[in-house]
Amino acid sequence: MAAMVALMMWSCGAPGEWENAVLESPAFAEESLVTRSAPPPPSLPPFSLFEAPDVESSMEIVAERSAAARAETFISSSAAMVNPADTTRKLIRTANIRFRTKDVIQTTFAIEDLVIRRNGFVENTTLESRVNRTREIPIQRDSAILVTHYTVFNRLVLRVPSTELDATLREIAQFVQFMHSRTINAQDVTFDLLATRLEQERLARFNTRMTRAIDNRGRALSDVSAAENLVLQRETQADQAKIANLRVLDRVDFSTITLSIYQNQSIMYETIAREKTIRPFVYTTPFGTRFVDALKFGWGIVVEFFLLLVNIWSVLVVAVLVFFGVRYFRKKFKKKKNA
Is the pTM of the predicted complex or chain greater than 0.70? Predict the structure, then answer.
């Protein structure tokens, strides 16, 4: 029935007016009662009735929204939700998530902004580019292209109010392309807080008793000094217990989210200077310079040899005397032998 009404309205009216007529018709209202209760399908970008829609872009949008919906379902957890009716338990909620995103830098800025909107703050962020490999492609004698394959990583530590943890995680899900891991903890510290409070009360009573004992009893100076030191130690323990209690309450009130995000490998091309190859036989010293250097080197050897002889003149004299002495005695010995 609705189809017939739509056809009649389209044939009578101008193109584009039949859509409103069909939506306002009673037949369409009756037949759409069943379909209204079902969840609506993913919305596609508007297009003209007389133009064919871009199927590829529509499918990409549907795929992205479906991926975001799956990520939101995967990233959420009942451990991240706060039950307002339960006021007896104190829970420390933490989330540790590792996922891939399209652009780490843009995702980082967007997450930092949404954390601020949720009345939280960024405790730490570490953004780095890890070089996977590099290679050089020579293009000229003195230049080359440096190809760098790198991956951008970032580790964020976020603090948000515990009541905003689940909503924050659902907003972060829109940046997830591929989910690696998700860990959400809800640690019950109710009894830890009770033990710390009882310790504070116990130390306070001890300090009160010790202070009265010091004031009411007359003791030697050494006894009073020892008692004062004991009181000081107990007060220090009480302060430490109070600080520990405040730290636990801070972790209860503000949940911690640790995100490890990265993107697909990127490639950067950069023109760099290249070292020239110098051949030794091409770049040599001129012959004239080498000839003069050789003369200087030879004259230096002569000078050094002459100085060496001057330094050992006494040795030379002794050697000459020994030589002639041996020669003299040898001739004399031969004459005696022949006679």
Answer: no
Label residue 48 exposed, middle or buried (CB < 10 Å: 0-12, 13-18, 19+). Answer: exposed
Which residue do the tokens 């310079």 mark? Answer: 289
257 burial type by CB count under 10 A (0-12 exposed, 13-18 middle, 19+ buried): buried
Q: Encode 195-226: b = buried (16+ Cβ within 10 Å), e = exposed.
A: ebeebbeebeebbeebeeeeeeeeeeeeeeee
pLDDT in tens, 265-289: 999 999 988 877 666 655 677 788 8
| pLDDT given at position 48 | 38
pLDDT in tens, 177-194: 998 888 888 888 777 777
According to DSSP, residue 181 is labeled E
**Cα–Cα distance for residue pair 80/158, rounded to 1 Å:** 14
Rounded to the nearest 10°, the torsion over CA 141, 146, 147, 153 is 180
User: What ranges do the domains of the chain cover?
Assistant: 71-80+88-284
Tokens of 11: 């044939």
Tokens matching residue 163: 């009541």
| pLDDT value for 228 | 65
Phi, psi (degrees; rounded to nearest 5) at 15: -60, 135
Write the burial class of residue 15 (CB in 10 Å: 0-12 exposed, 13-18 middle, 19+ buried).
exposed
Contact indicator for 274, 143 with CB cutoff of 8 Å: yes
